[in-house]
Write a structure and sequence with these properties.
It contains 6 helices and 33 strands. A hairpin with a 6-residue loop joins strand 31 and strand 32. By secondary structure, the chain is mostly beta strands. A 5-stranded antiparallel sheet has the order 1-17-16-15-14.
Length: 583
């Protein structure tokens, strides 16, 4: 009752209450199961150090109550009929928006041409081979000839996935599919998002989000709707092939605004989302959203709370993991990371406590993180990716791509430009962050001479093993999906031999002009068993399902990386779960 009383008093007591409650929470972290091979909570966490408040003034944009559920039965939706497809009327996701002018982007690119080499600091020297993580399941998933809205062709895919007890859900910009986790068999789809969200009136969906809530055994799926809607839904049970609750909210604050790049994470009381907004008269703002997940899962009218972050860009919320292993963060603030000053070095860390309390709770910036200095690798603005056969591909920017919670830490990824020695290429950077004292515990960069590593996503299991998935190509190789791994016991700064999820098969091409869009992200998800990782990446496909298809040739592939981590069942097990045994 004392904790509840403190939570209910946030609006009245303001910043001092936030500090006091956060400090109290830090004294009671969730404890890993005895004997588990995980790192202890940081000393600052155990001692209850109170993070300083850098800035508390954040505008509560609105509290939306009573969004109406439109139930959907997935089995009742029509299947895609390839015989009815037409070759005309190509469709393209809206071009990615950036928080600076085109002139500023050109200045950033020019500055990268003089980037100094940093070969000694890069994770490019693999460990010797031998027993270690391996790919034990591969699924060739949706390709460009299957993700077709009403007879139109689409690019890029923006692949993402979520893994539950028995299912893998793979989503692209226009369609999603569901697979059996243990066999890889297709159970449902591909299903067009236009059909799935038709009952809520979702228009031109793109930028997919899909998550699995380990604590509640529910899947969440969502899309941007034409830049002015957010269309979202959740399963009514743990079976994504069954019935869903679906909703829609107006996501802009003025009819001339453009809503872009929503990214999500599962929290305790909410599905949290971060987004950018671009007004028609120029400039950029960003927002943090909280969707009441208990209302969502039950099909009740849903409450959504929105805070304005000002000119910070591309907020990415934390995604909680580790429920079964007992390392889930069961209470306290939900964290966000954003671009700060858009320089590839500094990122802001935010915390949101009690979003459905008075005044939308307490939303505050805790501090500014430096991801570049701890890595020892100078960072610059990403350059276009080279591939065999020409036709460069966009690498986008250095915005946050990932923010996962595991074993008491936040894990983040970004694209950056680095110089392994022979010249600048786009590289993958990941960082481990202690949110309780706003420190970057470690930051590493994967880069190799003449190769581009883009759109990285990181996964960390219960044993603190790491998997980094990314797109990779060079002037002598096609674009494909790859994974690098390391065990907790491995020497610092080293990786195990790279695993091929799916190699590119031909030169990637598309109808959007050069440099081609490749997308905005890929996804690494940790199995709820706490051991294995599942990666969905993109590759260039030689022969599509529709042999007459010539507009673009992307495809996505899924691979399971088996780590053999013996993770405990901190909140009770399920005998039917895949526990990482030999296949």
């Amino acid at each position: 009752m004392k904790r509840l009383s403190a939570l209910l008093g946030f609006a009245a007591t303001g910043a001092l209450a936030f500090v006091a409650v956060l400090g109290g929470l830090a004294q009671a972290p969730s404890k890993p199961t005895a004997g588990a091979r995980v790192e202890a909570a940081p000393a600052e966490f155990r001692r209850g150090v109170r993070p300083p408040i850098v800035s508390r003034k954040r505008t509560l944009v609105r509290i939306e109550r009573g969004l109406v559920n439109h139930p959907v039965s997935l089995s009742a939706l029509p299947a895609i009929d390839l015989r009815e497809l037409e070759q005309e009327d190509l469709s393209l996701e809206p071009e990615r928006q950036f928080p600076v002018s085109l002139e500023k982007l050109e200045e950033l690119r020019k500055a990268g041409e003089a980037l100094p080499p940093a070969p000694g600091a890069l994770l490019y020297r693999p460990l010797p081979g031998g027993p270690g993580p391996r790919i034990t399941r591969s699924i060739e998933s949706i390709d460009a000839s299957q993700a077709i809205p009403a007879g139109r062709r689409t690019n890029p895919p923006d692949p993402t996935l979520a893994v539950g007890k028995r299912h893998v859900v793979v989503a692209t910009n226009k369609a999603f599919a569901i697979y059996d986790k243990n066999s890889g068999a297709l159970l449902s789809g591909p299903t067009l998002f236009g059909a799935f969200f038709a009952s809520v009136g979702c228009v031109t969906p793109f930028d997919p989000n899909v998550l699995y809530d380990e604590r509640e055994d529910r899947f969440f799926i969502a899309m941007d709707g034409a830049g002015f809607q957010y269309c979202f839904g959740a399963t009514q049970t743990g079976d994504p092939t069954g019935d869903w609750n679906t909703y829609l909210i107006d996501s802009v604050f003025d009819e001339n605004d453009f809503f872009d790049y929503p990214q999500v994470g599962v929290g305790n009381e909410a599905i949290f989302m971060g987004s950018n907004t671009f007004p028609a008269d120029g400039g950029q703002t960003s927002q943090a959203w909280a969707i009441n997940k208990q209302e969502l899962y039950s099909g009740a009218p849903v409450t959504v709370v929105v805070h304005q972050l000002g000119d910070e860009s591309t907020p990415h919320p934390m995604h909680l993991q580790g429920w079964k292993q007992g390392t889930w963060l069961p209470f306290g603030p939900h964290f966000f990371i954003t671009n700060h000053d858009y320089n590839g070095r500094t990122y802001s860390l935010y915390a949101w406590l009690n979003p459905f309390g008075p005044g939308g709770g307490i939303f505050t910036r805790l501090g500014i993180l430096d991801l570049a200095t701890p890595s020892g690798v100078p960072a610059a603005y990403p350059n276009d990716t080279e591939q065999l056969g020409g036709n460069p591909v966009q690498s986008n920017d250095w915005s946050p791509l990932d923010l996962d919670w595991r074993n008491g830490y936040l894990w983040a990824t970004t694209n950056i430009l680095c110089n392994p020695g022979s010249g600048p290429v786009t590289c993958a950077r990941w960082a481990r962050i202690n949110p309780w004292n706003q420190t970057v515990v470690e930051s590493r960069v994967l880069g190799t001479n003449g190769e581009w590593h883009t759109f990285a996503s990181v996964g960390v299991n219960h044993c603190q093993d790491v998997a980094l998935g990314y797109s990779k190509s060079s002037a002598t190789s096609y674009i494909g999906a790859y994974v690098s791994t390391r065990l907790r016991s491995d020497p610092p700064g080293r990786l195990r031999p790279e695993l091929t999820c799916k190699a590119g098969e031909t030169t990637f091409h598309s109808f959007d002009g050069v440099p081609h869009r490749w997308g905005d992200y890929t996804e690494m998800a940790v199995d709820p068993n706490g051991s294995d990782m599942w990666y969905v990446g993109e590759y260039s496909k030689l022969n599509l399902a529709d042999p007459t298809f010539t507009a673009t040739n992307w495809a996505v592939a899924v691979c399971k990386v088996d780590f053999r981590c013996r993770a405990p069942h901190g909140h009770g097990g399920d005998d039917d779960d895949d526990e990482g045994e030999d296949d």
